C-alpha cells in the first residue's frame, strides 16, 4: 500500500522529491515534472 493511499503526506512528499531528483540527475530516467506536481497538488486538495 502506498503512502498516498495510507494518507502519509510526509512519505508522499519524500518519495516525490526522491523521484524528481533521480530524474534530474539521471539521463536514463524520464519524468514529467508537471505530472508530479499535479499529483502533489491533488493530494493537497484531498487532505484539505
Could you please describe the fold and organization of this structure?
With 48 residues, the protein is mainly α. It has one domain. Helix content is 75%, strand content 0%. It has helices at 3-6, 9-25, 33-47. The radius of gyration is 11 Å and the shape is elongated.
Core attributes:
elongated; 48 residues; mainly alpha; single chain
Number of helices: 3
Residue ranges: pLDDT <50 for 5 or more in a row?
A: none
Q: What is the straight-line distance between the termini? A: 21 Å
Beta-strand content bin: under 5%
> Percent of residues in helical segments?
over 70%
Write down the secondary-structure element order: HHH
Structural class: mainly alpha
Instruction: Average the pLDDT over all residues and give the rounded result.
Output: 75
Task: Tell me the overall shape.
Answer: elongated
Sketch the major β-sheet. Answer: none
Topology:
Layout: H1 3-6, H2 9-25, H3 33-47
Gist of the model:
The chain has 48 residues and is mainly alpha-helical. It has 3 helices and no strands.
Amino acid at each position: 500500500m502506498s503512502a498516498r493511499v495510507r494518507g502519509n503526506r510526509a512519505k508522499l512528499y519524500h518519495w516525490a522529491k526522491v523521484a524528481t531528483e533521480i530524474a534530474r540527475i539521471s539521463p536514463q530516467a524520464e519524468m514529467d515534472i508537471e505530472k508530479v506536481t499535479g499529483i502533489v497538488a491533488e493530494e493537497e486538495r484531498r487532505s484539505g
